[in-house]
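re: ur question from earlier - yeah i can do the single chain one, its not a big deal. heres the input i used so u can compare w yours
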Amino acid sequence: MNIYKIKPQAASENIVVDFGAELNSKLWDVFLGDERSETENFLNINGSSQVDNFNNLIDCSDFLSCVVPFPIFSKRAVDVLRELDCLSFLNVGVDGVYKFSIGLVNAKAKFVDEEKSKYKILTNGDRMLSVVAYREPLESFFIARDEKYYSNFVVSDDFVERCKKNNLKIRFEKIEYGHPKSFFNR
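and the output i got, formated as tokens:
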């Protein structure tokens, strides 16, 4: 099975949705932890696209990046992906446009190769994952978070095919197994 990183279309690649420090922290705690809270606590939230021309880019991509490691999907993408058990959705606004949803990734799989990944040593002696190497997952999925490193999510061939079949404006970067890849060694 191949796995992929999900990417926005080129015109939208500078958009990184930010809900503000306090809300980003709450979203992380509630939806990346093992026990999820009720989504009613997050009704009508609105994030910033951090670009000046967002209204011109709204329809350029069906996926947006986020400061918190969640996929943000357009309404069009949600209509295609809604039937997947591995995703649930939280409606959100971006720059006051409420046509988006955070994709809450329910499935977990082991795909981070801990032996080949690189780590930073923190001042307290703990290790923090800094450059991820991937291994082939043993289980199949459409979209999943790593079972230990929750901030890492990937999609499968089946997810890519579903998006292509429905002409969703999403790019995918195929992951090469066993090789740590950082921003600096692309």
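The CA atoms of residues 121 and 127 lie 5 Å apart. not sure if urs matches, ping me
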